[in-house]
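User: What would this chain look like folded?
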Amino acid sequence: MAAPLSVLVTGATGRTGALVVEKLRQRPQTFSVRGFARSPEKAAQRFGSPDSFFFGDIRQPETLTAALSACQALVILTSAVPQMQGAPQPGQRPNFAFAPGEPPEVIDYQGQVSQIKAAQAAGVEHIVLVGSMGGTQADHPLNSLGDGKILIWKRKAEQFLIDSGIDYTVIRAGGLLDQPGGQRELLVGKDDTLLANPPDGIPTSVPRADVAEVVVQALLEPAARNKAFDLISKPEDAPGAAVTSDFKALFEQTTPGL
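Assistant: Here's the prediction, encoded as structure tokens.
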């Protein structure tokens, strides 16, 4: 029997990252999983213990070295988080900002580049990067939050990964839903075509649990290697929808390059 695949998940205490860690832990014969996060307290609160976690800051690349040692795969789930400033006023759009020192350029670009470079130095063979749809649309509303241009910086990091020479899988998720996974048909696309023209006008969203499952399957399925794609789901009650179970077939619909 082959040894389990050694995987590091960064952003492992986030809402999607934690789901990825849980799914990988459910398959101990297949995966040996480590988490990377900033807060031991948050890891203990989410998982009951900080065991198998490494703690550091992606803005400090040296803190990634031990976490990536002897790892074969890296899953990147770090992201800048916009924070609402004050109570929204009636008839006005709420104001958002990013924590000091944590704008998208630093977290979603420089921080991801640091992770990719550290993975290169460690001999990592495959990186799965979870991003967001909308990177081709400079006027996307998310780019205006805190004037952070978050989707633009994410897409620059994706290009850096593709150019790095490491096998990659870039998953650009639609709007994330806190709903059960494994109950929907998943759809893949490219260059935000699903965002601009969703089939049958369906919502351009996907459960976090389904994104986490796609990450796990991408680590296993060769058809996911060196591919980048957008990901949404059909509503559970969509006419003719069939729950996605053949992930090889799903990945074979995707293509290389940004």
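The longest helix spans residues 104-122. If you want, I can go into more detail on any region.
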